[in-house]
Design brief:
Elements lengths: L1 H19 L5 H4 L1 H4 L4 E12 L2 E17 L4 E2 L8 E15 L2 E12 L5 E9 L4 E9 L2 E7 L7 E7 L4 E3 L3 H4 L9 E9 L13 E9 L3 E8 L2 E8 L6 E5 L5 E10 L9 H7 L8
Parallel strand pairs: 10-11
Antiparallel strand pairs: 1-2, 1-16, 2-3, 2-4, 4-5, 5-6, 6-7, 7-8, 8-9, 11-12, 12-13, 13-14, 14-15, 15-16
Length: 287
């Protein structure tokens, strides 16, 4: 009898932990962090796998709050006009050498600040063979997706895809794992996950079950996302803003944070400005 009660308590505790361990909007909505007129500018030492081999490179993650026109789904020049909301934008920028040529790619996500729902994503990709552009625009629980690639049979097209309950895109994860409710020392929950679109071909956007689990340590939080293609592990700072320190991806790619700045990077475009920004201790997050 006592054993049954203990098992029931453990089961209930796990269920309660799962309930509290969800992606929440509070991180995206944090005005004190995102409304300072600066971006979080994260520089990663990276090994990105292409053609089955890891390629040494540098990857940038840039996160910034900006006004967003809901009709055009672009950055608004006028913050005050009707139909403009605040979004958190994240750009993932990859420059990956592959032998004689190079992949140059940027993926952008736009999450509404009022509810942290993804409003739009886009991708530009070139690999010295051709150019690809993809975009997804949200309307309710559907995304209107279009693509323009250089591949035979997928030159141009569009489709409507329905976002399932608790559905997310793989390319959201570097931000989404930072938005977990970490009020408990550990937890786990289920999501539906679509594959990455960071490639040059048309995608098959099929959502499949994935399990998100986290455990808090003395200095770091480890988040594991198990999905149909393997397992991704993210190492975050324990304390807010939960900087992403490392990312071990299921395909063998690996990112490790070299430097994180809080900076109005659009004003650093002159010769020598990169060195100036990296040398300025007032712009750097503490290690």
């Amino acid at each position: 009898m006592r054993k049954s009660i203990c098992v029931a308590i453990l089961f209930l505790g796990g269920a309660i932990s799962g309930v509290f361990a969800q992606f929440t909007p509070s991180f995206v909505q944090n005005s004190s962090y995102w409304n300072d007129g600066k971006a979080e500018f994260d520089i990663y030492d990276a090994q990105i796998v292409r053609y089955g081999q890891a390629r040494q490179t540098e990857v940038l993650h840039i996160l910034v709050r900006e006004p967003f026109d809901l009709q055009q789904l672009v950055k608004a020049d006028d913050w005050q006009r009707p139909g403009v909301v605040q979004v958190l934008k994240m750009n993932q920028i990859l420059h990956v050498p592959t032998g004689l040529y190079v992949y140059q790619q940027m993926h952008s996500n736009f999450w509404r600040a009022d509810n942290a729902r993804l409003a739009k994503f886009s991708l530009t990709s070139n690999d010295s063979c051709g150019n690809t552009f993809k975009e997804g625009r949200r309307s309710g629980e559907e995304f209107a997706c279009q693509w323009h690639t250089y591949w035979d049979g997928m030159a141009d097209g569009s489709e409507q895809v329905t976002l399932p309950p608790n559905g997310f895109f793989y390319d959201e994860l570097p931000l989404r794992v930072r938005t977990i409710d970490f009020s408990k020392p550990s937890g786990a929950f289920q999501i539906q996950l679509a594959p990455t679109i960071i490639n040059s071909k048309k995608d098959k956007l099929i959502w499949k079950p994935a399990q998100v689990a986290f455990k808090t340590g003395e200095k770091f939080i480890t988040v594991t996302v198990k999905h149909d293609r393997g397992s991704d592990e993210f190492v975050l700072d324990r304390d807010f803003p939960h900087l992403l320190r490392e990312w071990h991806a299921a395909d063998g790619s690996h990112l490790k944070l070299k430097r994180s700045l809080k900076v109005d990077y659009w004003n650093y475009h002159k010769l020598g400005d990169r060195e100036r920004a990296l040398a300025d201790p007032m712009l750097q997050h503490p290690d």
